Amino acid sequence: MSALPELMEVAEAVAKELGLATPVFCGKDAFKETYHVQGKDHKAIALKLVDRAKIDFVRTEREINSLQRCDSPRIAKVLGTHIFKAADRRIFDIVLEEFFDGGSLEDRLKLSPMTKPEVVELSIGLLLAVSDLHPLQLVHRDIKPANVMFRKGSSDPVLVDFGLVRDLSQTSLTATWLPRGPGTPFYASPEQLNNEKALIDWRSDQFSIGVVAGHLLTNQHPYQTDSASPGTAIHAALERRGPTQEFQQAMNDLGLMAVTKMVSPWPVQRFSELDLALAALKS
């Protein structure tokens, strides 16, 4: 995320309109900026500004609806929504969410690497989060360190940023003719990278969790063929070459062959049931 806010004036105007405290910039991505504010009850809130000129409102609406359907401590909670019209006529969708004062996984990794037990615990927590999405036919499609948050004093991961969520019960919002589907390429499954809609389900999130775990354990993507070039992993995933021999050996040495299975190139080769994946990691 960039450290330079572009919408501070908009955030301040929104906070004033909603009776919130002065916003503090947290970060941004291509479509939104996030600020930390306090509500009237002094509760910490994440204020997200989504510019309709940059992303289709239908996708934002689906993100909000998906989060509102989830009642889980492992999934970010929507506290409220609002529509704001700026002085320059731009329209912003405002989403108020729980603020996570424990920071993100990305933040934690800047402080120190994780041990094997910590990576296993994290992976189990993320799979449990996916297990809360699965009955609702929701696929996150963008699980990565920046989208994994923690509450202060807790090691339990919470999934945030459902901007790319796929609701399998509804029509896909991604054009079929596009050569690539949505997601962060480094963590995306081969079916996402190849925009193979029919193959996308919870096992696509399983793949991303496996990549997160594998990268934390080896400092490389499971498919990375050149240690100096992480981009080689994306091409290897596109072509479904599978995890490298070096990665497979590393997971074997750690007793974590489950991670190798999680990052198999085809969904049918991964764990077919969440309980099986959880059991394999716990063993």
Could you explain the architecture of this structure?
With 283 residues, this protein is of the alpha+beta class. The chain folds into 2 domains: 8-98, Phosphorylase Kinase, domain 1; 105-282, Transferase(Phosphotransferase) domain 1 (Transferase(Phosphotransferase), domain 1), CATH 1.10.510. It has 10 helices and 9 strands. The protein has helices spanning 8-18, 57-69, 105-111, 116-133, 190-193, 202-218, 231-238, 245-254, 257-262, 274-282; strands spanning 24-28, 32-38, 44-51, 78-85, 91-98, 138-139, 148-149, 158-159, 166-167. The protein has a 5-stranded antiparallel beta sheet with strand order 1-2-3-5-4, sandwiched between helices. A hairpin with an 8-residue loop joins strand 7 and strand 8 (158-159). Helix 4 (116-133) packs antiparallel against helix 6 and helix 4 runs antiparallel to helix 10. The radius of gyration is 19 Å and the shape is globular. The two termini are 36 Å apart. The mean pLDDT is 91.
Largest sheet: spatial strand order: 1-2-3-5-4
CATH fold category name of the largest domain: Transferase(Phosphotransferase), domain 1
What characteristic shape results from the CA principal axes? globular
Class from helix and strand fractions: alpha+beta
Total number of domains: 2
Largest sheet: 5 strands, antiparallel
Mean pLDDT: 91
Number of helices: 10
Multimerization state:
single chain
From the alpha carbons, calculate the radius of gyration and give it in angstroms: 19 Å
Task: Identify the CATH homologous superfamily of the largest domain.
Answer: Transferase(Phosphotransferase) domain 1
Number of strands: 9
